[in-house]
Amino acid sequence: MTGWLLHSTGMWSDKRALSDQLVRVFGVSSKTWEAGLPKRPKKLQQSLAGLESHVKGTLAELMPESAARKRRAIERGVEAMTDYPTLPPCTLFHQTYGCAGGDRLEALAVALDELSAAVLHNQLPRNELPEGIVQVAVKVGGVRRGQVGSCPEMDPGLDALLLLMAQMDHDLTTPLMANAGEINSLIALLIDVPGATKRRRVQHRLLDIYYALAVAAAGKELPSTLPSIQEAEDALLGGPPESGGQSWVIRWRNGTKALRGEDVQSMIQHVGQVTGKHLGWTMRRLYAAAQAWGRIEETSGLSLAGKRYTQWWDALCNQGRSRTQWVQPYWGRIQPSVQWNGSAQP
Predict the structure, then answer these.
(1) What is the gyration radius of the CA atoms in the chain, in angstroms?
(2) CA terminus-to-terminus distance, the chain
(3) pLDDT digits over 142-151, tens only?
(4) pTM as predicted
(5) Alpha-carbon distance 203 to 185, whole Å?
(6) Closest residue by Cα to residue 163 from 68, 9, 292
């Protein structure tokens, strides 16, 4: 079920960067890696040692709670490979989204991984996955039975990803809400509606959200209008390119330049240096969501996916918080003029 997840994360870096990372981690070229694990025992041992060192370094960079979740995911992967050495371990949801929030998100990710494993081991027919995902949401996510039906017309992998993303959205937004009993969706601001009067690509919307986060981190009031190119450059990058070439913000917005993970990391570092606030947790998770929605935008299924996401997000409003409207006018500027339920915005 992890096809959509892999499809979206494949855009985090270009092929050259991914190839260079493989060399750094495993000590072998990407072409060698394509042929499988190194055959010579000494080279294999060196590659596995490199992987172990990389994992330890990654864990050291995480917050303690995230590192603990990542360790549990790795242990599950090792156990799966030990039990079934000829089959791929079904732990990718846990390795990624499962480490990006709280206990409920991790539990959902593990349960969906187990659902994938059941199909892989011929314990569950694939056509039962849509209902299986709903049962996971009920049993693990606290969704009320009958509140959300199965969606057989949607790829089960995408449905599972939307469920995880909706819970990550709750975990991400909850600390940012001023009132304890209220919640709203940041990720929903990334999703444009087919037929909306002013459509903007998901990366454009992401940069508008990043700008708001940078302004708030600096202790300033949010403006009532969306940022100009120069305002976005100043807040997120410290100014225009030194080369004097075309603005990266323009190119990211119109899609002529892909927004990569290293670009987001540069913005995180700049905002942190200027404001003293570390927004990496929030910005990286929004980026992961944006990459997934960017892939969905490439298909004809945006409308169905948007409605399904809203169903999951609404169903997960069972954690002591209820949906509220955005107070600052700025967020309304990002929000589409038509919502997924068809209601017009004031």
Answers:
(1) 21
(2) 39
(3) 999 999 999 9
(4) 0.85
(5) 17
(6) 292
